[in-house]
Design brief:
The protein is α/β, with parallel strands linked by helices. It is built from six helices and five strands, in the order βαβαβαβαβαα. The protein is globular and about 45 Å long. The structure holds 4'-phosphopantetheine.
Length: about 160
């Protein structure tokens, strides 16, 4: 049984995340989507909403569980759930520069490896922050977010 953790704020989950998570399910038996909450951070959506949107969106893909990660170390969460790897999507070299030290630190802390998947070019320009800004200003983000997220942006 090979298990991977795909961590993030998912504030909100978008199609770039979904594409990476779906590809990860072809590499691992189980992918645990770990929804983090850093209590010093401001989120657009509550933790429960971020989890609910992820669950609604990912329920049709086998091999995925969505769990809260809390605000502890990702390496500890990986050890607790028995993960063999962390999955991260890379959109560009800026992502790589940001992620590489964390990957090395996570391997140092508990031996967990990070597997990087290159983002599909259709989604390499999007982030949750950009989508939140466009949606807040009345722009159409429906090509980039699942239905569960559109409903919450509109409510
Ligand atoms: O979607 P985000 O906000 O970019 O996700 C960032 C996340 C949750 C993956 C990252 O902040 C994280 O790993 N947080 C857990 C705290 C931790 O382990 N910090 C040390 C990293 S080496």
């Amino acid at each position: 049984m090979r298990r991977a953790v795909c961590p993030g704020s998912f504030d909100p989950i978008h199609k770039g995340h979904i594409e990476i998570i779906a590809r990860a399910t072809r590499l691992f038996d189980e992918v645990v989507v770990a929804v983090s909450t850093n209590y010093s951070k401001q989120y657009r959506f509550e933790e429960s909403e971020r989890i609910e949107m992820a669950r609604q969106t990912l329920s049709s893909i086998a091999g995925i569980t969505v769990r809260p990660m809390g605000d502890g170390l990702l390496a500890d969460f990986c050890r607790d759930v028995g993960a063999d790897a962390i999955i991260k999507g890379l959109r560009n070299s800026t992502d790589f520069q940001y992620e590489a030290p964390m990957a090395t630190m996570n391997r140092h802390l508990t031996g967990v490896e990070t597997v990087f998947l290159i983002a599909d070019s259709h989604y390499a320009h999007i982030s949750s922050s950009l989508l939140k800004e466009v949606a807040a200003l009345g722009g159409d983000v429906s090509d980039y977010v699942p239905r569960a997220v559109i409903q919450r942006f509109e409510s």
